[in-house]
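Data deposition worksheet. Section B asks for the primary sequence of the deposited chain exactly as it was used as input, without tags or linkers unless they were present during the calculation. Section C holds the resulting structure in token form. Section D is free text for depositor observations; keep each observation to a single sentence. Incomplete worksheets are returned to the depositor.
Section A, Depositor: J.P.
Section B:
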Amino acid sequence: MNDFLRDIGFYFSRQICYPFVSPDVLQISVTNRCNLQCTSCNVWRQDNSDSELGLSDIKDILDESAKWGIKEVHLLGGEPLLREDWPEIAKYVKKKELSLVICTNGTLINENMVAKIIECRVDILSVSLDGAKEKTHDSLRGQKGAYNKILRGINLLNEFDNSIRPKVVLILTVSKKNLLELKEYIDLAYSLSAYGIYFTALTLDNVQLFSQKKTHDLWIEKEYFKDLDKIFQEIYDYGKSKGYCFDYPSFKSFADYFRGDLQKRDWVCFAGLKRLVVIPTGDIQVCGEVVGNYKAARSLKKIWSSPRAVKRRWFVKNCRNYCLQDCHARPESNSFLEIAKRVCSKVKKGRMNG
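Section C:
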């Protein structure tokens, strides 16, 4: 029943662009600092290290989030492991009995860092690895040797028992540089005992997701367009044979996305509802636009229900510049009819079991 109430709550929240339920996820970018200069990312270009949220501010945000009913926290950057007090933040997340995901480029995971990750009881470690081959990854990430650092770090984690080490999920941003080595990537993930693989679509601007840019140097070239359906179907099938499931919303739309053929009902965006995004300065964003600042308001809920946030959600609802980011998708709340069908099915099943 709780799942039903949240699903229906998100559905109606999107209809009128006002939140009736708490977000599923709190995303805190704890720093914009990064030790890499990735060609598909603009975050490292924004230097605001002098105005990062303090530890006490972050703890206050976590306190309110836990009381509000948020269950999952993602720590991002830049590179979050560059922030010296990240272990204190992580431990506080776990103290509030929240699920913890850390998104990292993986290059800082040495023996000392592994010990901290284990001690902090990180649930999921999301590691960005942008190619099956060393040359591909390092060229995209702007640092020679980054690939080997990541593999070494994952292997260090694998020395610990499954019961205490985090689940490692490998993330690859699909582009023309790595499109033809996705099968090899699955083999690599399997060899590393990765818990999961997530392929995410290249965006024209990963900071301004609503950007009207029309081109990107890494965009898949037209010569591949006619083969994209076949390529992604083969990857889906091969992943399944290795125990990796790509049933998340975006994957089935990759071919149409890169060809520019997505239609209105192909992608339903819950940006500004599903995930509360806090950037290092304390600004709270909805689809890249600031709708308030925590340092000033001292209230997530006040900002989340503010007129500025509501206005931005209307922009999101009417947006047709699809960025295909699953962090803003909530397919279980797309359709009132489908929600009703699921509830009726569960009720019927319960009666039969009774």
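Section D:
The chain has a mean pLDDT of 93.
The longest helix spans residues 336-353.
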